[in-house]
Amino acid sequence: xxxxxxxxxxxxxxxxxxxxxxxxxxxxxxxxxxxxxxxxxxxxxxxxxxxxxxxxxxxxxxxxxxxxxxxxxxxxxxxxxxx
Length: 83
Known about the structure:
The chain contains two helices and three strands. It has one domain. Strand 2 and strand 3 form a beta hairpin. Strands 1-2-3 form a three-stranded antiparallel beta sheet. By secondary structure, the protein is an alpha+beta fold.
């Protein structure tokens, strides 16, 4: 796998956590179930994670909205889950 993306080592571990969660739970659950399981899996892997973290969204210098990231890993990567 080409590791030319930012924070490649962390990203690969996040993907591994995702596959572990998905292969364990299977399909059909609401997003929140997968989000909670991802939090557990990532924390077991030793990552610092925040769930449903509020982020102000700016356009140029003006605040235009609010965003709630599903999971932020190591204050570097936003994980947005879809189910």
